[in-house]
Amino acid sequence: MQIYNTLTRRKEVFTPIEPGKVRMYVCGMTVYDYCHLGHARVMVAFDVITRYLRHRGYDVTYVRNVTDIDDKILRRADENGETISSLTERMIEAMHEDEARLSVLPPDQEPRATRHIDDIISMVETLIGKGYAYAADNGDVYYRVRKFEGYGKLNNRDLDEMRSGARVEVDEHKEDPLDFVLWKAAKPGEASWPSPWGEGRPGWHIECSAMSKCCLGDTFDIHGGGPDLTFPHHENEIAQSEAANGTTFVNTWMHAGAVRVNQEKMSKSLGNFFTIREVLEHHDPEVVRYLLVASHYRSAINYSPDSLAEARKSLERFYNSLEGLALEGLALEEQAQEAGEPATGAVAPEFEARFTAAMDDDFNTPEALSVLFDLARELNRAKKEAPGEAPALAAELRRLGGILGLLQQDPATFLKAGASGLPLTEEEIQVKIAERAAAKQAKDFAAADAIRDELAGLGIILKDSREGTTWVFEKPQG
Q1: 61 three-class SS
Q2: 104, pLDDT greater than 90
């Protein structure tokens, strides 16, 4: 398995620190508002990565933190006239609802900054003791950036270049404008905790260094996050952790791509900023997840009506292949395959081999999906030419799709859910199906064909199988 390492800027063979085990930390949300599409991108990307690592047999410990104390949180709570804990608890609950709807599995650990204040203070004390940090006379504690020799290595930046090109906040209490805060002195009325430097709260960067150390140790396998975190957040994490712990912080750095809306950067100022729940009000969660999975995790994603429509069509192709096969039978086939038992039909081993090769190559989900489309085509062929092979092929399609968090719905339910703008009610369609069945029973095939053609003209396509007649809606063009 090869993974692209942001630190070295190349793909590397993945070798976990402890054979068979993977320790992974991903920067989570600052919970002052509802999660947006960019958060969904990171959630889904690392959910797929976790699912696949477990599929490959790794014992994965997945940690994703929550930042529940921050300037934005303080401002929003004040604007709302509510307590900080009321705001953060409400947003954390909403975040869990959003991720569940997107079929994102919960992390193994979800540490919160406010529950690790002692760990944060301890790390700051260590950095001061080693000369990497200093307490200013205003009660703040700062990190000495120039003291850390490797600063800038994640982003390939030179310190002097950063100093000349950056808009660095002027602060008379800093020794150097590049220094960043580890501990903030509390202003009157702000939430705070006691510390050796007075009442205050942690800076953002130190939170993740302390929480990851507490959950995963001084060095762990993978650290991930969104594309905007490489600098300064992850650069500062490296400086803090390696200075405090005296060892390599992370072996592999992974960053998900950005989300663009109609080819523009998503931002509130442009009016193209969408929360996950706003999107899910109008679109099937699996369609949104498919859109996020269909691009490589490092690539930018374009969110638009056209891209969502394409995602819907792709899923319909899969579910049309699966439709008409009893889910109970598929479940038995899946259980047999997971147990390594022979399937009742012939499943070409090449599909899993190709799927694994794609995902082993830096989690190449677009290539993995192309393998699933080939498998769906083979399933369609089997349904017509070799029905005995179809259940095993369908079970394989669902099993491999499940590694991506896809194709786990009842096919008929998914296909009907897309039937917005139906020209007839479902009850009226069922009446027509019953009339057609009666005509066929009476051997009045002309009447049966007329009913089928009438429904087809409205975009309602009937599908006959041994289990009965089902239907899907394909909105007529034009």
Answers
A1: strand
A2: yes
